[in-house]
Amino acid sequence: MPFEKILLIGLGNPILGDDGVGWVVSREVEERLREDRANIEVDYLSLGGLSLMEHLIGYRKAILIDSLTTGKHPQGEVITFTLEDLVDLTSGHTAAPHDTSLKTALATGRQLGADLPDDRDIHVVAIESQHVYDIQEGLTPAIAASVPVAVQRVLDLLKAI
Length: 161
Known about the structure:
CATH class: Alpha Beta
CATH architecture: 3-Layer(aba) Sandwich
Number of domains: 1
CATH superfamily: HybD-like
Structural class: alpha/beta
CATH topology: Rossmann fold
Helix content: 25-40%
Number of strands: 5
Largest sheet: 5 strands, mixed
Number of helices: 4
Order of helices and strands: EHEHEEHEH
Shape: globular
């Protein structure tokens, strides 16, 4: 089996408060893996939909780290799932390319022949957050306290996939 690269992406915007948690967790993971990341590429992005899909081309596996606002979990809870498990609530309701969900963008890319990972091979580590539109650098205490848990979750996923 060929040596496969894993793409680790910290998503969010570091000047929008807790929305930057994906970047913080990715930096911590990157620091911990400094000597042992031959097959892992790390990126930091503030985008979604079609643009995010383009970054996944050529990879077999990916881990996305981001904030998540569902109101179903306590602030700071770390939730892990695959993209296959995520319901696509925007499917078929896209008004503009930047509004396209990742699942829809991946399906479109695959239909066009792009070499993309399967939804079951895209793992998401999300931190339940409410303050994702506050213009401020840094995380609230509840989200900052969840960073070590999320880092460990990513490290465990990297060993498992």
